[in-house]
Amino acid sequence: MTIETPRPWLAGYADGVPHDIEPQTDSLYDLVRGSVEAYPDSVALEFFERTTTYRELGEQIERAAEGLRLLGVQPGDPVALVLPNCPQHIVAFYAVLRLGAIVIEHNPLYTPRELRHQFEDHGAAVVIAWDKVVDTIQAFPADVAVREIISVDVTRAMPLLTRALLRMPVAKARESREALTTKVRGTTPWQKLVASAPVDSHIVAPAVGDVALIQYTSGTTGSPKGATLTHANLVSNAAQARAWVPQIERGSAVVHAVLPMFHAYGLTLCLTFAMSMGARLVLFPKFDPELVLKAVKRRPPTFLPAVPPIYDRLTKAAAEAGVSLDGIEIAISGAMPLSADVVEPWEQASGGYLVEGYGLSECSPVLMANPVAPNRRAGTVGLPLPSTEARVVDPDDPQTDVAAGAEGELIVRGPQVFSGYWQKPDETAAVFVPSDDGGADWFRTGDIVSIDEDGFVHIVDRIKELIITGGFNVAPSEVEEAVLAHPDVVEVAVVGVPDEHSGEQVVAVVVLRDGAELDEQGIRDLARDGLTAYKVPKRVVQADELPRSLIGKVIRREVRNSLLAE
């Protein structure tokens, strides 16, 4: 696939990174099967130091696929996964795909209402769920279509000694065991599923154009929607990731899965990219600095995808514990801005690169990344990946490009971009701009950006989170940056709340350093030094903490809702 339109960012690509990737013809199942065949005796998965080889992984996938087939799963059927990071998650993911069925990932810590909403939307009849959430699913009303639950006890994937310690009759062991597993009834145990015979080799595997995954968006602008991603989308994104890091050899990488794999970012960089590389994937059910550093001491990751707060905590924890981060070659950060205050200590401690990237669930999700090279540019999300096109357009007229270097809405197209939302044709139509050159339509990201003369992309803000006050647009991140300059402010979220005079009022919700008292006027005066008057917060509210998603991103929607509820 060769793109002919101008792409000024290509000059910034690191050595060895191709401008384009080849059209993908393999399915995700083909990718993992290729690693099983190429590296049968290599470690595929590590979980609390218990390992699974690629040969064993392949056998478990085939057996789980047969178990699902016997339960009635057919090609095209949606199958829900509600699992933390664990070996069963990887097996379940690829077993569903082996049958040509569709994976739907869910956050196992969602509230019953949030889970029910998604199940009502996708209608999956078969669920593979962590036993800790089985009660929630069994309590769904009769109009939710679930007919079969496969329950997963994650402790069964742990080493025998660890499992024995969890059964010790002491309070700490009991507390740990209760956090990881519980007894359930009325389900099919996971171990029964993988005790099946291997699926018949004549069962047709999925085609590259088939739907592989329904990935629900975070819902920051309304109810979550399911982004429908094909095997081609996800395989292409894995190929783009491999192309971006040519220095990592297949069959030799070590990847730490500290991000949840039910999230698009963790799913692609840990679950699909790592497996396609024949990597050793070290799984953590949740981010725990102590557990991660123990794994780093045994074998540092070659590749570590995470978010800024994780890098910050690991750097500090490693220094306190005297653990070296040396050997962590490539760290990729996403989901929120990456500051030099995080990058510099990390790169000094690890001797490797920490670079920022950018993506959306609708784009499998990675669209851009900084070069893993000296020309990486702090404060940007980097360059569009191979075979990815990007334009900056007028948000009110997305057919019209803005002037070079000016701010506007980012629209993109490439093999990783989805085809639409699950059973939502109107919402799908609203996010695509028709092409006038015979190519694919352009996806509206909803992000305001600028692209500099070297092709590096600067994120300004989300369109839907812009505050409109007195007819002027205010970017929350710009105000947040100004407020963070105050020495007492540790964290801040800026939102707009209704105001009868100006439409919306700019409000800053701050977390202060220990022992500090709120100096509202001082914060506003400092912000006024760098902002025009209409951007200065009209109110500054103190909070003990800010609501975050599981990957650490501040959820402005919840901040705003809390203010409105007062």
As a whole number of angstroms, the C-alpha radius of gyration is 24 Å
Number of helices: 17
Tell me, rounded to a whole number, the average pLDDT. Answer: 93
The parts where pLDDT drops under 50 for at least 5 residues are none
Which short descriptors sum up this protein?
566 residues; alpha/beta; Luciferase, domain 3; 8-stranded mixed beta sheet; Long-chain acyl-CoA synthetase; AMP-binding_CS; EC 6.2.1.3
Brief rundown of the structure:
Strands 7-6-5-3-4-8-9-20 form an eight-stranded mixed β-sheet, sandwiched between helices. The chain is built from 17 helices and 28 strands.
What would you say this structure looks like, in words?
The chain is α/β, with parallel strands linked by helices. Among the domains are: 29-42 and 50-206, ANL, N-terminal domain (Rossmann fold, 3-Layer(aba) Sandwich), CATH 3.40.50.12780; 387-462, Luciferase, domain 3, CATH 2.30.38; 466-565, GMP Synthetase, Chain A, domain 3 (2-Layer Sandwich). It has 17 helices and 28 strands. Strands 7-6-5-3-4-8-9-20 form an eight-stranded mixed beta sheet, sandwiched between helices. Strands 17, 18, 19, 21, 22 and 23 form a six-stranded antiparallel beta sheet that branches. Strands 12-13-14-15-16 form a five-stranded mixed beta sheet, with helices on both faces. Strand 22 (442-451) and strand 23 form a beta hairpin. Helix 2 (54-70) crosses helix 3 and helix 12 packs across helix 13 (340-350). The radius of gyration is 24 Å and the shape is globular. The N and C termini lie far apart (54 Å). The model has no long low-confidence stretch (mean pLDDT 93).
